[in-house]
Write a structure and sequence with these properties.
- By secondary structure, this protein is α/β, with parallel strands linked by helices.
- The chain folds into 3 domains: 4-144 and 271-339, FAD/NAD(P)-binding domain; 157-268, 3-Layer(bba) Sandwich (FAD/NAD(P)-binding domain); 343-456, Enolase-like, domain 1.
- It is 32% helix and 25% strand.
- It has 14 helices and 22 strands.
- It has helices at 14-25, 41-46, 48-66, 82-106, 160-163, 180-191, 211-223, 279-282, 318-332, 361-366, 382-387, 415-427, 432-436, 447-456; strands spanning 4-10, 30-34, 110-113, 116-120, 123-126, 129-138, 142-144, 157-158, 172-176, 195-200, 227-230, 232-240, 243-250, 257-261, 263-266, 270-272, 305-307, 346-348, 353-358, 372-377, 393-398, 405-412.
- Strands 1, 2, 3, 4, 5, 6 and 17 form a 7-stranded mixed sheet that branches. Strands 8-15-9-10-11 form a 5-stranded parallel sheet.
- Strand 12 and strand 13 (243-250) form a beta hairpin.
- The longest helix is centred in the N-terminal third of the chain and has 25 residues, at 82-106.
- The radius of gyration is 23 Å and the shape is globular.
């Protein structure tokens, strides 16, 4: 029997490692078990961080080849060095995961290396050693959802993991799924020269986002050369000597067609990772989708066992998991912990980016909530013109009586950063007028947010 801990976290992804760090800051004796050789989970190792590194590198390559000349910068003979681009991606990953390791040492969090399994009340088996803990947190994250009948080999038929490690730019890349992951990785390889086709079962992309934003987002991606096959399902994928032959059919019925690809990325979503944790033996209840069921304080039905992040209900976002990790650590330390799920932003890190917080028009209509709209295009923003980034707009939704901000949606350059102001506004119950009355630096992209807030009341200044 090993030493006992106040808290043992299973999983060192954004939710798990942040929970461990915050609990240690609050004076708890903390351990974190991780089966990977490095800390950081899917996000830092094979998800958020490496994908953003490749997004940035591919944007730089595309700008040098196509956009610099407009700025009076003539770059001749631009050549893609994919091995160096991939090496830089790994350097970025390494720096981040080593940073988490440093934080564990700094805050005296014990790193337990190996796969973990709940071995009884207050007991966790990590690589054959039993550890005792007053509280156990399941923070094991999620994994790619497989497509029935399609065999993943990470060479020609890939998950996002394989799409981050291609050794050559494919001539023809087919992405199955029109969500965040598929569009981000599809845009990377499109900028690097691949012919990209996105196949989506639904009749629209990014289905959780505002439909007006989604339509305009698709239009922009189409101009960039991405082809969309919406309302279409994949029925078969056959490996051939030339790559992969896909059989597609209309989602609502009809004749099947064939589509040839060199590489296929399956990105139809993610599911909670709960296998091998001993949850059934421990009696931990799961919902119909295989997620751990918790109450408002992240407690499972078994005393002393908690869960956070992708493994429970809610959007599968790293920052959502982090907020839950902090809230739970504070609750376990006897403090107040809370997450406002109405103020969790979502971002698609394409170029341009898409960001949103709060409710969409469709959601407001569904629940019968009246609203006013304020919109402002980046074509009328001076900073956007100077940058050559005029695609997109800011769209705000506000209550017509109280003027309280209900939702915010941005399609445009640096939307993932711009959305922070609006997340703060929703967190503190601000009105569109509060945003409109706030001084914004000139010239800045943020002025489009102010103008959209003014537009809620019909008094935008620059359109």
């Amino acid at each position: 029997m090993s030493e006992a801990f106040d808290l043992l976290v299973i999983g060192a992804g954004p939710g798990g490692y942040v929970c461990a760090l915050r609990a240690a800051q609050l004076g708890l004796r903390v351990a974190c078990a991780e089966k990977r050789e490095t800390l950081g989970g899917t996000c830092l190792n094979i998800g958020c961080i490496p994908s953003k590194a490749l997004l940035q590198s591919s944007e730089n390559f595309h700008a040098a080849a196509h956009a610099f000349a407009d700025h009076g910068v003539r770059a001749e003979g631009i050549v893609l060095d994919l091995p160096r681009m991939m090496a830089r991606k790994e350097e970025v990953v390494s720096a981040n995961v080593k940073g988490v390791e440093f934080l564990f040492r700094k805050n005296h969090v014990t790193w337990l290396k190996g796969a973990a399994r709940i071995a009884g009340r207050g007991k966790v088996d990590v690589a054959g050693t039993i550890h005792e803990a007053k509280s156990i947190v399941i923070a094991t994250g999620s994994e790619s959802v497989p497509l029935p009948g399609v065999e993943i080999d990470e060479k020609a038929i890939l998950t996002s993991t394989g799409a981050l490690a291609l050794e050559a730019v494919p001539k023809r890349l087919v992405v199955i799924g029109g969500g965040y992951i598929g569009l981000e990785l599809g845009s990377v390889w499109r900028r690097l020269g691949a012919e990209v086709t996105v196949v989506e079962f639904l009749d629209r992309i990014v289905p959780t986002m505002d439909s007006e934003v989604a339509r305009n987002f698709q239009r922009i991606l189409t101009k960039q050369g991405i082809v969309f096959r919406l309302g279409t399902k994949l029925t078969a994928a056959e490996r051939t000597s030339a790559g992969v032959r896909l059989t597609l059919a209309p989602a609502k019925g009809g004749d099947a067609t064939a589509l040839e690809a060199d590489v296929v990325l399956v990105a139809i979503g993610r599911r909670a990772h709960t296998e091998g944790l001993g949850l059934a033996e421990a009696g931990v209840a799961l919902d119909a989708r295989g997620r751990v069921m918790t109450d408002g304080h992240y407690a499972t039905n078994i005393p002393g066992i908690y869960a956070i992040g992708d493994v429970i209900a809610g959007p599968m976002l790293a920052h959502k998991a982090e907020e839950e990790g902090v809230a739970l650590a504070e609750l376990l330390a006897g403090r107040a912990g809370h997450v406002n799920y109405g103020a969790i932003p979502g971002v698609v890190y394409t170029s341009p980016e898409v960001a949103a917080v709060g409710e969409t028009e469709e959601e407001l209509k569904t629940r019968g909530q009246p609203y006013r709209i304020g919109k402002f295009p980046f074509t009328a923003n001076g900073r956007a013109r100077a940058m050559g980034e005029t695609e997109g707009f800011v769209k705000l939704l506000a209550d017509p009586v109280t003027d309280r901000l209900l939702g915010a949606h941005i399609l445009g350059a640096d939307a993932g950063t711009l959305i922070a102001e609006l997340v703060l506004a929703i967190e503190f119950g601000a009105s569109a007028e509060d945003i409109a009355r706030t001084c914004h630096a000139h010239p800045s992209l943020n002025e489009a947010v102010k103008e959209a807030a003014l537009a809620v009341d019909g008094r935008a200044l620059h359109i």
